[in-house]
Amino acid sequence: MEVKQPIEHGNYYHIYNRGNNGIDIFLSVDNYNHFLKLYAKYIEPIAETFAWCLLKNHFHVLVRIKEQNEIVNEELSYTTTENPKVINPSRQFSHLFNAYTQAVNKRYNRTGSLFETTFERKLVTSERYFKQLIFYIHNNPVHHGFVIDMNSYPWSSYGTIISDKPTKLKRNETIEMYGDIENFICYHSEKQNLNDIIDLIIE
Questions:
Q1: Rounded CA gap, 90 and 98, in Å?
Q2: What are the two backbone dihedrals, phi and then psi, of residue 139, each rounded to the nearest 5 degrees?
Q3: Cβ(184)–Cβ(173) under 8 Å?
Q4: Are 168 and 49 in contact (CB under 8 A)?
Q5: What's residue 1's pLDDT?
Q6: Dihedral-angle region of residue 30 (phi above 0 means left; psi in -120 to 50 means alpha; beta otherwise)
Q7: CA 131, CA 191: separation in Å to the nearest integer?
Q8: Facing residues of 91 across strands?
Q9: Nearest to 62 by CA among 130, 139, 158, 117
């Protein structure tokens, strides 16, 4: 069995999970919205989010895990009433997956696991990787044939980044990686060569 690297505070990660045996994890619009609501509850207090995309049977997020001293304990939610002595980012993701699985199982009268056992994570170590990864995440619906234009897909951060609507997404920091919003849009409108990060892409 592959041993996953622990998620460490202060690092940037590409986080990914898929449905168990490839099954769909989002079956309705309500499912997408509920997942994002739970993400805000369990993950936003311990991580900054730069990009995300939800597809029928999997999702991708690019996050920076906050340092311990950046986390406000009062904002944290747990699946138990007993507060942990040490904040474990991996456990917060587990809380998210468990809560979402329970909601889906109850709604659709199903039992058992919804997600694969352990979620994937890749450490983001360079600005080049960061920029290419954001393109990869936003382009995923195009890559899988759901849409022709990534801007027309409703369940990703692309539309939020190019808009001025209120968001907790790290919009300005993301855009700055490309210089400005025009360059961000231009970069996303062109076909990118992802060969440099092919081994680091989780699919």
A1: 12
A2: -85, -5
A3: no
A4: yes
A5: 47
A6: alpha
A7: 13
A8: none
A9: 130
Q: What is the phi/psi pair of residue 16, to 5°?
A: -145, 145
Say what the pLDDT of residue 31 is: 97
Tokens 């990060």 locate to: 197
Least confident of 2-16, 55-69, 176-190: 2-16
- Report the DSSP beta bridge partners of residue 18: 58
CA 62/CA 15 separation, integer angstroms: 6
Among residues 50, 60, 54, the alpha carbon closest in space to that of 29 is found at 54
Contact by Cβ (8 Å): 16, 58 = yes
Q: Where are the alpha helices (DSSP H) in 77-120?
A: 89-107
Task: Provide the 10 A C-beta neighbour count for residue 167.
Answer: 12
Distance CA(109)–CA(111), nearest Å, equals: 7
Please tell me the pTM assigned to this model. 0.89
Q: Tell me which H or E stretch contains 197.
A: none
| The pair of three-digit structure tokens given for residue 146, joined into one six-digit string | 């759901």
Q: Which of 116, 109, 134 is nearest to 51 (CA)?
A: 134
